[in-house]
Write a structure and sequence with these properties.
Layout lengths: L1 E6 L17 E2 L2 E2 H12 L2 E7 L5 H7 L7 E4 L5 H12 L8 E6 L7 H10 L5 E7 L5 E4 L2 E5 L6 E3 L3 E4 H9 L14 H5 L5 E4 L10 H16 L1
Parallel strand pairs: 1-4, 1-6, 4-5, 7-12
Antiparallel strand pairs: 2-3, 6-11, 7-10, 7-11, 8-9
Length: about 230
């Protein structure tokens, strides 16, 4: 079985809006609804834990068409990784150690059904899955605003969500970082890497970008318009 965690607790401060970006409307419905539709359409996801503030839970529940009984909610944490751990904790007793869990950001509305299915399938073989994109630009290391090193672009990738994990090992990897080290985690894969879990990269998707700024929302709306005009 594969479960999912949808992270929807962010405040979206860079959007300059009172409404978090994942609840803003695009194409006539909330941004979060698009990833929910993809997870439902995949047909491979069992229980879904949504990390979200209480004020938005009725809205989120209404966006699920046929699996409302499989949707549970978790409290947002002080940072992204603690929000993930909150989602993992509400899935304890539902998912077994060898089950898969796919973690996604509500602000990435263009996740594909094929990506979700591919990660779910791959978790029967691999212990952790990261969709990644190669970098196109030259990459430098800077210090105090000055370039100190030219990095090897062929050895660097840009990670995306959704990420996939074996539930039991990833839960333990996060618990091992409590109470303080987890506050310094800057990426979902970091606990797995620190625990010695082998991470397998798969091809990412250029369209699967995260809405962070107003310009990103406009880009997404334009994609929706182009799709509907075809």
């Amino acid at each position: 079985m594969t479960g999912a965690i949808i992270l929807s607790g962010g405040t979206g401060s860079r959007m300059g809006s009172d409404i978090p970006k994942q609840y803003m409307e695009a194409g006539g419905k909330p941004v979060i609804s698009y990833c929910i539709e993809a997870f439902e359409a995949s047909g491979v996801i069992g229980p879904v834990a949504v990390v979200a503030a209480e004020a938005y839970r009725d809205l989120i529940r209404s966006l699920f068409s046929d699996k409302k009984e499989d949707v549970i909610f978790a409290e947002p944490g002080a940072n992204r990784q603690l929000s993930i751990l909150s989602g993992l904790n509400v899935l304890k007793g539902i998912l077994k150690d060898d089950d898969g869990v796919i973690i996604h950001d509500a602000a990435r509305p263009l996740v594909s059904v094929d990506m979700i299915r591919g990660i779910s399938d791959a978790l029967s073989i691999y212990k952790a899955i990261l969709p990644a994109l190669p970098l196109k630009d030259t990459v430098y290391e800077i210090e105090n605003g000055r370039i100190v090193n030219n990095l090897d672009r062929s050895r660097i990738v840009a990670g995306q969500a959704p990420e996939g994990f074996r539930f039991g090992s990833y839960l333990k990897a996060n618990e091992a970082l409590l109470p303080e080290r987890i506050l310094d985690v800057s990426g979902s894969m970091q606990p797995a890497v620190m625990a010695g879990i082998e991470v397998t990269c798969i091809q990412g998707d250029e369209r699967n970008f995260k809405i962070t700024t107003p310009e990103d929302l406009v880009r997404f709306e334009n994609i929706l318009k182009e799709t509907r005009d075809i």
